[in-house]
Amino acid sequence: MAKRVQLVLTKDVTKLGKLGDLVEVAPGYARNYLIPQSLAARATPGLLKQVERRREKEYQRQLELKQQATEQKTALENIAGLKIAKQVGENEAIFGTVTTQDVADAIQAAANLEIDRRGITIPDISQLGTYKAEIKLHSEVTAVINIEVVSN
């Protein structure tokens, strides 16, 4: 059996790894596919040092993002009550629904924070009342806020 070859990935490769990962593959896979397609390069000491520096920079960037997300979480949780006005029909049923964009706009108006609507999770809201919305600010930081749906 042929020995395996160590490579450093220069691009993300499905089912193998992400950019900068050190991987061991069969020599034929490396020689015939990964290296000619510029998906990987042979692992040399200099290249390994570059990869390590790149990983350290990425780690620092992720720490900064997490710190910013934590600050946003405290700012969001300090918002007393987020009110969203909707048109109401019979039995306090609202016309339409409360969307994540409505919640993002209300946060923008109340706290002047720009939140991506794709990170907001809300329950199905069809009545007036108070609901909890979950806002994912970072992979490890999630804020929960109260939303009050009122009649306009």
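(the above was protein one; protein two follows)
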Amino acid sequence: MGAAMNSILAPAVPGGAYDRFLVDALPKARAQREWTPEDGPLPALYLSHGAPPLFDDGPWLRELFGWAQSLPKPRSVLIVSAHWEAAPLCISAPGAHTPLVYDFGGFHPRYYTMKYDTPDASALAQRVAGTVPDGEPLYQHRSRGLDHGAWVPLMAMYPLADIPVLQLSMPTQDPDRLLGLGARLASLREEGVLVVGSGFMTHGLPFITPAMFHGEVPGWSSDFDAWAADALARGDVDELAAFKDRAPGMPYAHPTVDHYIPLFITLGAAGRPDAAVTTAIDGYAMGFSKRSFQTAV
């Protein structure tokens, strides 16, 4: 385990695992069946998105890709990332080939040259605008592209970059308001739009230790993950919303809440936030919980 973690953090060829992953993934991605109205609404997803080290983690890349392959190929993707908190509500630039946001530091130069040139998402931008109540502002950015909470996992899930993608800002940290925002987006799922909340089920960056790089999972991470898994299985939204007071492992698991609260966008978009979810990915990366799930349809 330690050797594997070392290779992820200091790979001989940065991004080499991603290059190898593409050899098998691209033919399957080209053959993926596209969503049709007969499929019914897509689920909403919450995913733990990782960062550049994901491109050196072959098993995690395959988990994300396998998850995407288990669903019909969406017509477009609307994603809310932990890394864009802005009010009033904002949407990213919808133009094709909008430059990415490389919002990380200290990594090999290769990761700052990666591209994810998605098609024009203007039609999705118009649909998102249509979900916003009259009188509520919505700011359309002209140049802001996808941040790493969006493009890093999507490069694993949809490596062809042939699906329109739009990013929506997270305008509040209040779980009830995020549930309401997600509920406004729920109808998009009936049109083949994949609604995604992107965070990390635990994200105690200030408390990371050398042992975590070698596979150790601290109690604050495993305890929080078990608590969240239980609440999600029971559809206990009130428990999930009271995480600051009720969740074990706090505040270490989330010294800031940005990577946890996209979960409420996902649950709101489900239509039934209290329905049990299906876990797609679990386990840990550098001691952080990778738990990712999809809602019932």
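Reviewer note on protein two: Confidence is low (pLDDT under 50) at residues 1-6.
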